[in-house]
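Just wondering, can you check both lines?
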Amino acid sequence: MEDWLTMGKLKEELLRLKPYRYALGVLALGAALLLFPSGETEQKASTSFTEEEWLTEIQRELSDTLSRIEGAGRLTLMLSVERGMQNSLARDVESDVQERGESLRRETVVISQGSGQETVVITGASYPVFRGAVVVCEGGDRPSVQLAVTEAIAALTGLSSDKISVIKGNVR
């Protein structure tokens, strides 16, 4: 009998909280999400590319795209880079005015992540600047294919058409 009384009181309390059910649900969901680690730092580290890996991946994706152009057939793509990837690092600048002149001291800003790990603060990044492209493809002797491939590379890399060469060749 006591269980029925407790259940009745519980029902009354739940009915009293009914107008707040959505707010309570959001709070419960938020609390549940806080219990799970995001893993964002580890994920970023695992998806970062070296410059060579980045260039290889870009060439592969661009080759796949270009090979779908009608008449191009199988192809090989080579991109040359004028300037590599560059990161802009946050710097802490201190100036000291002395009798003989002004001296500046610049230090790269570093964030400590605990356990002796430190990370530099990156304020910006620039991707490599391409110098030129060579495409060797089965349909490289046809002007329509040359034009389509050149326009596609120019659109995706920012290269001007005079820096792109499309040549007919045997592709393995």
Summary: The chain has five helices and nine strands.
